[in-house]
Every structure is written in structure tokens, then in C-alpha cells.
Amino acid sequence: MAVPYQACDSSAKHYRDVIVIGAGAAGLMCAAEAGARGRSVMVIDHAPVTGKKIRVSGGGRCNFGNLNTSPGNYQSENPGFCTSALARFGSQEFIGLLEKHGIRYHEEDGRLFCDNGSLEIVGMLEKECDSSDVEIRLNCRVSGIKKQDFFAVDTNLGRFRSHSLVVATGGVSFRQLGATGFGHRTARRFGLNVTPLRPALVPLQWGRRDRTTFGTLAGISFDTAVTCSGKTFRGSVLLTREGLSGPALLQASLYWREGTPLLLDLLPRGNAYEIFLSKRQRKVEMRNLLAGYLPKRFIQTWSDIFFASKPMNQYSDRELRKIALALHRWEIVPAGTAGFSRAEVTLGGIDTRELSSKTMEAKKVAGLYFVGEVMDVTGQLGGFNLQWAWSSGYAAGQFV
Ligand code: FDA
Asked: Model pTM?
């Protein structure tokens, strides 16, 4: 049951088997599973409501998982870490939970969405917690954590003690949704390594010259294939005043580092050179021909930089090959990302080499667990991050 603003016993006797800090996706899942095992569980969150990120996820539709989830959909310095938890609680297990609660969902290219919005998932997790007598303390701010025989968690609602402590405070992106660096600070205080944090699934910014040229085309989008560091993502790219966005670009941002070029295939469905050959005898101008494949305003600007437009029958074979190559490999070197305030997730986090992949417990600190986005496990766009929250939360919930 969620208890906002309610004072509670602050004596040293205030003991639970498990305290979970963070009432988001991973924290609620962990608490529900631990509660179902008969553990006494308290969830603490500084926000006034549970699951703020779940509520806004997928634009409110909640892309809660993906039928094609595999470890290959995740980025981590320790890539195999997520395998065990994903195998034990994957998309089918989460669907089972939805079906138990009569929540309708549907699939789009493997991505799973709620039919009636994300609030149903928040409600379901709260019900699961409620039915196992899990207490949820909202507006509860943690001021200190100590570990002796037990964990002592000092908060504005008093001191609580527990045998197990689960840190489920998420990444640092979207502070307006309650994100803090609390989990990473806590890990460092207990001597655990934290891998470098970066904004990911985030728009990328134009370099200075591209901004002058392409920033004026804000609002134009087209189908493309974006390659970054050897990974290619097919989908829409949106040009904005500041840079590039859209699903394919957000995916690529997961693999982008300063100075890395992006290669955009502007004609991912065809072979530009073959298209040119089939129109070679025509008098149609190249840019008018290309306007049949790409937005006209974009191709006008783009062609001014990459080729001189003239009738198709006036190009040499060498010129056609060069233009075709430029279309299939438009190289852009972004100046940076749009930052954590616009990033759907945080790349990096608690070094998973410090944790057990079975239980999520810190190897050096008995009883201390980390679940969800706070760890160095970051999924691609498409429901993979919430899936990691469910899988890792469930894994820890079985052992706390
Ligand atoms: P999460 O961020 O959910 O929860 C952390 C909790 O800890 C919060 O309740 C927070 O208030 C609390 N907290 C933080 N600091 C605290 C402190 N110091 N003291 C107490 N409490 C504290 N993923 C996906 O798979 N599909 C999708 O459709 C989307 N869509 C999406 C949209 C937007 C706008 C964003 C920002 C993100 C997404 N995501 C997503 C990502 C997904 O929401 C995210 O990866 C998970 O919510 C992570 O779950 P966690 O439980 O780890 O953190």
C-alpha cells in the first residue's frame, strides 16, 4: 500500500527483512517477488508517486518488453551478465503477470505495449506489492546508510533497519522524473566500481557546419539505416534544429562516442546506382529524381553540398557511382549528445563484475543488492530497458 506523508516509527526497532530504495520498475518488481516469498519488505522513494518513468514510458503506452529479447540487445562492459536473469524472467513471464491481472496488451514488430496505457502496469505492480503486505513509503528521503550486522537507513521518516538492502534508484537521466545519482554514490561508498555514465537513447547534435546547413530543415524525417561503431539500425531519422533524433538515431546513440562518425544510408531500400542506370537516358534532373525517394527540401539542400544537379543523361558513369556512394554513406560527425535531460536511459552504472548475475548481490558486501538501470546494463530502444528492470528485480527478489 502506498503511504504518502505518513510518519512512521523511527525507533531502532523498526526492522524489515528487506528495504528497497526506489519504487520504480525494478524496485517494485523486486519488492513484490520478495513479499510473495514471505519476506517483510519496505519500499522507500523520495517521489510522491510510484513508477514515474513507467507512467511516461512509450509515450504513456508503455513499451514494457520485447518478444525478441536477447543479451545482444544490451550494452555493458560485462556483456554476458544479463543472460541468466533474462532467461529466468523474460517477456513471457511478464506477460503471464499481465494476464493474471487481466491487462490487455499487443505486439508491434516484437515490441510489447499495453492497450490501455502504462498506468495499468503501475497499478498491477502496486497490487502485487499490496497482496504481499509490502509497504511503500513515498516522499521518503534517505540521508544516510550504515552497515553493521544490519543495514540502517536514515530517512526523513526515521531510521529503518533491514537484513537486505536493494538499491533500485535507476539512472541519472530525466531528473524531472525523480532520477538522482544516489545509487551510484551508494555503490562507491561501499567500495564498488561504477563504470562511466553517459546519456544514451538520446538525440545527437550537429557539428557547427552541419548545424548551419541542416538545422534549417528541422521537422523533416525519412527512412534510413544508421550505422555507428559497426551496428546498423533501420528506421526513421528526424532532423531537428539542434541535430538528429528519431528511432534509428536514438538506437545508434547507444554506441556513439565523441568523434565517432555516423553513416546514414539515405536509400536503404534500394541500390542508388542501379536506380540511376535505369533512368540514365532520361532528361529528368538528378535532384528531381531523388525527390521521389527523399523529402524534396532535404534533397535540395543535400544535393547542393554533394553534387551538381543536372539531367540524368549528362552524368558520366564515374559521377553516378560517386553520387550513389554518397547517398548510401552520408557521414556525419555529431558534436555531442543532447545530454541526460533528454536521454531515455543512462549508459554505464554499477560495474556488474562486482555483482552476482544470479542474485544481483554485491560480491564484497553481503546483503547489498542493485537492480535495474542503476547497473551497467543498458538496453536498446524497444522495451528492453523495462525488461531488464523486471528481470533483474525478479532475480534479486528471489534471494533477498
Ligand atoms: P526507475 O527510474 O524506473 O525508478 C527509480 C526510482 O528510484 C524512481 O521511482 C525514483 O523516484 C527513485 N529514486 C531515485 N533516487 C532516489 C533517492 N535518492 N531516494 C529515493 N528514491 C529515489 N524503457 C522501455 O523499456 N520502454 C519504454 O517505452 C521506455 N520509455 C521511456 C520513456 C522515457 C521518457 C524515459 C525517461 C525512459 C523510458 N524507458 C523505457 C526507460 C525505462 O523507463 C527505465 O529504463 C526503467 O524505468 C528503469 O527502471 P528502474 O526501476 O531501474 O528505475
From this structure: 0.94
